[in-house]
Amino acid sequence: MSFLFLSLSVLSLCLSCFIEANLSNVARRTFTEKDAEVKRMPLPKDGAPVRILLGDRPDTVTVVGPSHVTQFDFQNHKNEGNAVVLSKCKEKDCDYHIAVVQRTTKAEEVFLCGAAGQDMFACCMNLTDERPTCTSSKQTQPIDSTKGGINIKEGEPSVLVESGEKVDLYVTYSGSEEQVGIHRFGEHRVGPANTNKALERHYVGLLPIKEGGDPTQDKVYAFYRERNSDSELDSDTWLPFVSRVCTADVGGPKNNLQFCWTSQMNARLFCGDPDRKQHFSELVDVATVEAKWWPDTRVYGLFRNEWGMSAVCVYTMRDINNTFATSPFKDNKESKKRPRECVKDSKAISSDMLGIIKLTSEVKDWVRPENNTAPLLSNHHNYTHIYVDSSHQQRNDEHTVLFLTEQKGGIHKVLHVKTQTFVIAEYRPFNHSAHILSITLDPFSRKLYVTTKHELVQMDVGNCGSYTDGCEDCILARDPYCGWNGTQCIHKTHDSLQDVTGGDCTICEKPEKAQRHSRLTQADTSKGGHSVLLPAESRYFLSCPVSSHHAQYSWHHGQKSTSCTSNEDQCIFLIDSMNHEQEGTYKCMSEERGFTKVLSEVRLQMGNRAVGLLSGPLVWVCLLPFLVGSL
């Protein structure tokens, strides 16, 4: 008997851990376009947007497309679009296609780059101009004068590095062609060397790092996935990498890595959990959170494996830089002589050293996640993009909010605090399957801007008013954007109440808590005071709404209770055949993290009169014999 009791206890504990582990990957709340404030506007028909830029006024954004710039005002639900005028096309007509949009250090100014016929163009444009004209300047002239350059692909990662009067554009080229790699356009054009035609790479991010002090040590880091050349059955299809180049690199001397990178180094990224034998090798997207001190800058990598699971791993620039500085190189004994630091004059590198550089660029050690930890998030959702709200980190808070887009158009809002993750909510801005191209958050208004090929959607993801069921509901949400002010859930302030780390609703004041419980009971009693008469042997069901998918729902009648699955929208209790045993009071209750509440209450009686219907926002009694029969 004791052995049986022990076995049942262990089983119960394992089941509890299993449920808790699974709930960590389930969105606590689901908000459709009807539940959250969603506004949408059609995009111009000239093509998918190249970049979304937040406006200087609330609810305004600027969308730059392949040939147009459009100002969207969601507050007044209007948009104004104009074709971009290229100054170099005024004298003669020319077709052009904008592929790169970057903000400059000047307010309201953007840098544009793309193809104009067979040539590249580069210019700057003021967004406040009534008729946007993009004009080449002294800084952009070296890029604008590039003839027969690479065909810059729309959607490729790019960064604009400004240093005094000098402007350089770094842009990647993905695929399996000779030009695949990192390219720089400016005063000194530099590109990849020794490209293997059979090599396939897809870049997902570029990150410029200014180390301070000596500008020759500034670098640009690229993140990409590479198709594995190993054809063994148990080999990964993709391999994740980070690559770095020095901004001072101008290529080698004439006929020896001329116009090619001499400082490029590559390192594998690792994302997985060896204890659970999980490994994620396909790098899908990256998001960076810059810090005041560059080694503390974080890179959030979104990965996928061949079993349809997604994961997020976090890396620091300190660890990435240390790997490049200390790891031995692969397959070349002479590589110990290769310099790790950036050099002031790459054209002065000896021919012997250039020969070593040609032979090797990949280091042996892999870059591990911060503190060599497991993925901070891993589940069976097929995520496609990651966006990180860093506004909290700038205030020295210990948590971060991640937004992850799903393949069919959903968006997960995820809390990352210390070593935990918590899926706060799933937003569904579309009533159909949609392919999301980009997401951008206004950190002040908490409005998320989502683009598809045909429309721009604005969604309020700081929707604190959705947590309407008192202090406990607000605290259990663990939403960093929200807090309890004593009467309602509002946008977080210094004085409002919230516990994002543990969601401990016992921090709600006891007098207010007791008053709220009394109010809820009285309200439900008034609704449940109706005696609903049901014919004998009738089939009926009681139903109450499910809000939190992390709560346990159940119907209670006398000494009996019936549990509901929390992944459904309603908690339903079926009465197959009404008799005297089914008479009495029924309560629908939820329990989450120790907080129990009565959602609805109704008293059923058996009689011969017509059926009474109980109405109200929390409970319904329905006579649907045809529905129950179909079950």
Automatic annotation (TrEMBL):
GO terms for cellular component: extracellular space; plasma membrane. It is found in: Membrane. Its main location: membrane. PROSITE patterns: IG_LIKE, SEMA. Residues 511-605 form the Ig-like domain. GO terms for biological process: axon guidance; negative regulation of transcription by RNA polymerase II; neural crest cell migration; ossification involved in bone maturation; positive regulation of cell migration; semaphorin-plexin signaling pathway. InterPro entries: Ig-like_dom, Ig-like_dom_sf, Ig-like_fold, Plexin_repeat, PSI, Semap_dom, Semap_dom_sf, Semaphorin. Keywords: Disulfide bond, Glycoprotein, Membrane, Signal. One of its GO terms (molecular function) is semaphorin receptor binding. PANTHER family: SEMAPHORIN, SEMAPHORIN-7A-LIKE. This is Semaphorin-7A isoform X1.
